[in-house]
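Researcher: I'm comparing several assemblies side by side, and this is the next one on my list. It has 335 residues spread over two chains. Same procedure as the others: predict the full complex and return the structure.
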Amino acid sequence: MHQISETNRVDQPKKLTGAISERFAKHPRGWFPIARGHGLPYGKVGGEEVRAARAELEELRNVAQHYQGVVEQNEALRRAFQEMVVQFAELNARVSGPAGRDPLLELFPDLESEDEISISDEPLPAALFAPLGDD
Amino acid sequence: MPRLPLSSAPKPRRHYYLDTSALFALASEWAGTKGQPAEAKEIARAVAMRPFLQAVANANGSIRTSTLAFQEIASVLQRRTRNFRAGEAGHGDWHNLIKKGVDPTAVRETAKRDMLQFLTYTVRAMHGIGCKVEEPPVGALATARVGTLRREAHRRLLRLHPGLDSMDALHIVVGYQMGARDFVTFDDGWTDVQGITVYG
């Protein structure tokens, strides 16, 4: 129910025409003008304005929902991307080993320090040293 | 273009590709310093190469070879040492040993040790001259295309130069793909190939 003010009360609308219902509302304590801003249409023009405003609000709500969806999608993508980055880092670490380490060394630890490879320097047969085109 | 002598001045900032014959000579020379029975001819080749390779480095050039050269040396060495070790064990050569049904494990292991020892000399010799070994370019982004180009270029080279050895043609193509236009080799048949300069 609207808030009413005694100062606005009228005993009887002057004209009981169709226009009255647009400006006054019947109340047990008399007729009172319909105040603007109470959610009730006030006249023809006011009703259109409200409907337009509601339509605009609805449209804005739709736009907001749309962008909310976009934001959520972006958030999902961001999380997926972060997961990919983490997975890539793990994979890279597994393949490359610790930073600066040659992945080949994981397979062939003996290659790590070539200087430490012991060469027997056993005498090799002379046949091995023949010029390449000779055989 | 005729073969240029190793006393020539190298061109600045160029890649020079060593083929198997050049690498083998350097490895033999290195082995000789370890008391191995290296051939005088190979040592002489290496001695001739050293000042040239130093001049390449001084001219901001790079010296390269490919895994192809290592594979070729490993293959030759394996064949030679298997035959030698089989003969040493009284079976003639590797082929006879297998044919007679003799267990080849001992000979195979000894031969493998010989081959690895020689390859170690090769690596040491290569490092001694600042040579880089490169895998022929077959990166993830270019595998199929590079491989196709290489096969086509290899066949074209062999058709154009019937006297060119197949492995030498492959060295030229691989070296070319690695950016080298200058090759050091002691093999014949290279000088007819257009677009490259041969030293040796």
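Model: For your comparison table: Chain B is about 60% helix and 10% strand.
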